Amino acid sequence: MRPTSDTEQKFRELIAIVDKLRSPKGCPWDRAQRKEDIGRYLIEEAYEVIEALEDESPENLGEELGDLLFHILFLARLAEEAHEFSTADILDRITAKMIRRHPHVFGNATVKDVEEVRTNWERIKTEVEHKLPRKSPLFDGIPRFLSTLAKAQCVTTRAAEVGFDWPDAEGVLRKVEEELAEFRVALKTNQPSRMKDEAGDLLFTLVNLCRFVRVDAEAALRSSLQKFFDRFSNIERELTARGKTLQDSSPAEMNRIWDKTKRRKGNSKNP
Question: pTM (2 decimals)?
Fold first, then answer.
């Protein structure tokens, strides 16, 4: 780890770069950015950090963390220009909050386990910081802009923590089968609204199944999506090697390449 003085200097240099980009003689594109623009980029960068974590690549993780930090500082700069708060204000607030919410580290409180740490955290939010729940106390704090898949898993996790859950995985599987049967019935009606409702129930139950067996639904789907990308890219490469394109190839030919790719990877599971 770098000495603190070196880290502080690098932090100042990055802030200076953000200031320069937003200055009258800075970059026209950066000067045109609004808060909502940076907010969207921020989400993208956060997901790229997650991908680097999943790839177990320290080099990529370091780069993506830098991109994420840059966008955080850029958004702080926009707030400072609007006379709302400064980067120093952000650092002061988060420092005070972390000290306040960890009395067992920075104070005289004692805790026996992780669950008690969490209980104290929620108590401090309510009793000390007076942060009232927006809708349901149980679901307060779940980000509104979290992906629907991740939000569904967060919601069901909270519900399970208070006992609203199946007794075992078999119970969840039976529910999946029930929802699948209801979707089959809706499919026969050819009514879009009914199919949408039943498809949503089926997806929600599958997320519950992932949560029950301690699988991150978002990560699982992202992994399957990447597997699909890799296999389909192989189809394109093989067709190109044969002097053909996707458009002039038959589904049967593409399926043969797909199956060959699966066998080569030693994985017979369909995507």
Answer: 0.62
